[in-house]
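Hi there,

I know you've been waiting on this one. I reran it after we fixed the sequence typo, so this is the corrected version. Both the input and the resulting structure follow.
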Amino acid sequence: MSSQAMAGATTATPVRVAVTVLAGDARLAGEVVASLNVRRDAGVQVAEHDDADVVVVLAELVTDAVVDELAAWERAGQRIVLVAGPLRERYLPRLFGAGVVSVLPYRDVNAGQVMRAVLASSAGRAVVPDVLVRWLVDEVRSSQYDLLVSQGMLAGGLTEREVEVLRRLAEGYDTSRIASELNYSERTIKKIIQDVMSRLRLRNRAHAVSYAMRVGAI
């Protein structure tokens, strides 16, 4: 991919968003750059890659080489608007890790859509297709689960021992019987229940059992 940039007349408007366009499609790149130049009155200006706040990458086909190149371009604080064809799921972690914040479909995209994504990305927002939003949500959930498991916790932030106690409470066991079954003292069982209610701000034992059932822990 080659860099496309056009310098225009000096404007008195302070530059708020410096943008560079990287593409293999000269026609689309030219349209995007022209659209960016039209927005100079709004503080948008085409810049060199190292000086850009937002990098627009136009890639009809995303390959391993493109992903590697994006990762190599990464600059702290830079945001990438990726205009691309269908993305393989295995590329997504590296693309977002490289600074991609907005993704537009390559097919039928126009310069106006790219401009809106540039302005949104520069303002800290993201323009992402629904299918990628779902992927990101699933990734966050998976990461949270892995973190809980690594800390000895299960669904809802409960430990395995807490789940065992709450499961028996749900079955109607009293403190004495739970202590006997789990080979703990009654004092320990009471403390486990109190810790759960305090940490998760639950009102009473029934509320704790209800919470464990709601999050799928029991």
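Quick highlight: Strands lie at 2-4, 17-23, 44-46, 54-59, 79-84, 100-105.

Best,
R. S.
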